[in-house]
Amino acid sequence: MVRYHDEEWGTPSRDDVHLFEMLTLEGAQAGLSWSTILNKRQGYRKAFKGFDPTKVARIHEAGVERLMADPGIVRNRLKIESTLHNARRIAEVQKQDGSFAEYVWSFVVGRPIVNRWRSLEDIPSETAESRELSRALKERGFRFVGPTVCYAFMQAVGMVDDHVITCFRSRELTPR
Q: Which one of 8, 34, 81, 117 is the catalytic residue?
């Protein structure tokens, strides 16, 4: 968890593969602890073909059954099926908008929202932007993308910098 925070969380990413990975992991985390998901991250990468949306989109029913038996991931049928479904939606977004990154980053006008929280208790679980992203993704057919999942995704991929002001990462990511 510390390594993930210190090296990755909140770092802006515009890579469609990484964005798909984080959207999937944040959705998988719903109802579970983040440490459970991080501990299974390598299993997810293997099971979901390195999170290449094109490859994942080709997995069908037989693949779902294989994934349901994979102890390297959370074996929840709805979450597995949503990953496959979301990969297909990402392909559609890429066709229409050029990239998934361009699309999701448009919800923050292409630049990270930098917050100046004094304590962890100040950080919200959702915002107007995450509600808007959630609504838009749902309209496009994405699953497991509620406002809280979307906000966690936005934080993870650096669309929002929610490091508290005393955190060294806040200074690294947004020098004052």
A: 34
Q: Are 40 and 73 in contact (CB under 8 A)?
A: yes
**Is position 34 annotated as part of the catalytic site?**
yes
The residue annotated as part of the active site, out of 9, 21, 26, 129, is: 26
pLDDT at residue 171, rounded to an integer: 79
Query: What is the sign of the dihedral through the CA atoms of 22, 102, 82 and 130?
Result: positive
* Type of residue numbered 84: L
Amino acid 72: pLDDT: 97
Q: Confirm whether 81 is a catalytic residue.
A: no
Read off the tokens for 79.
């979450």
Question: Is the pTM for the entire model greater than 0.85?
Answer: yes
Close Cβ partners of 83 (under 8 Å, ≥ 6 residues apart): 24, 27, 28, 48, 56
Per domain, the residue ranges of the chain are 2-173
Among 4, 63, 53, 2, which Cα is nearest to 24's? 53
Catalytic residue check, 44: no
pLDDT at 83: 98
Instruction: Average pLDDT across each block of 10 residues of the chain; the chain has 176 residues. List them in order.
Output: 92 97 96 95 98 96 94 97 98 96 97 93 96 98 97 97 90 72
Distance of CA 63 to the CA centre of its chain: 22
Fold of 2-173: Endonuclease III; domain 1 (1.10.340)
